[in-house]
Amino acid sequence: MLSIAVTGAAGRMGGRLIAAVQESTGLRLGAAIERPGHPALGQDAGTLAGCGPLHIPLTDDLAAALRHCDILIDFTFPAVTLENARVCAAAGKKMVIGSTGFSPAQRDELATIMRDSALVLAPNMSVGVNACFKLLKEAAAILGNGFDVEIVELHHNKKKDAPSGTAVRMGEVVAEALGRDYNQVANYHREGLCGERSHEEIGMQTVRGGDIVGEHTVYFIGMGERIEISHRAMSRDMFARGAARACLWLSDKERGFYDMQDVLGLR
Ligand SMILES: NC(=O)C1=CN([C@@H]2O[C@H](COP(=O)(O)OP(=O)(O)OC[C@H]3O[C@@H](n4cnc5c(N)ncnc54)[C@H](O)[C@@H]3O)[C@@H](O)[C@H]2O)C=CC1
Ligand SMILES: O=C(O)C1=N[C@H](C(=O)O)C[C@H](O)C1
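A: This is the predicted complex of the input protein with LZUJQKHR.
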């Protein structure tokens, strides 16, 4: 039985992660961690998550919590994740990371911090989105340069990063399949007399509002026809189940930097 710690335990994903861990054969919640000063510190993690009392109070002491845990699931924010990775690395623990919005430098820093351990980092842990990554690669390879690519993502009004990590990964997948450098061709902004669309660019559009869990559409727009590949998340539970699955997959890995494509055998 693997003992799992969850950071961001009182957050939107935190509760779903605690429930998913408890529902997974082979996993049990070992600790639930929140930021210092969080009003829910001391409350029972299971009760907070809506899955009944687990007699595990929320703590802000990650180092102490990790002593009796095997893997940390972290869905917080990049700067927090990097701090937590330092604590995990010092304790020789593995990580499953769902936080999004890492800069390339932060991603490199994460790899350096965790170089002697094992981690899964993925902007989206749902099976459906990971299947979409494969479909996008194939669609882009078939359609080639004859179609303009635009990506639109919709999320709730509390989301802090934009575009979503999933949208960026979709852009990267398509760009790579078309032999382009995503960082050179991503266009995040059109306003005023901005000129005709260039052939190579990949438009990235962001919508924020209400309680939208997460929706992504990649448009391949040709002359007289259009293909749309869409994914709509109806709840956060499948992200959480993906993270639990990643923990089980990681259990026999000593070291390495992986993502959900590895976990799901989609490489
Ligand atoms: N990879 C995936 O499948 C998914 C990734 N995400 C990402 O997960 C992240 C979190 O999303 P939400 O749960 O919606 O945000 P949220 O704001 O509801 O939760 C984040 C939690 O982290 C806590 N936190 C902040 N500092 C902390 C610290 N030092 N130690 C422990 N906890 C700390 C906050 O108090 C908060 O409760 C975002 O980056 C989001 O994009 C969200 C859904 C799916
Ligand atoms: O912040 C969220 O909510 C989500 N974030 C992830 C992302 O940025 O791609 C995944 C999911 O769409 C929900």
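The chain has two domains: 2-125+236-263, 127-233. The chain is about 35% helix and 25% strand.
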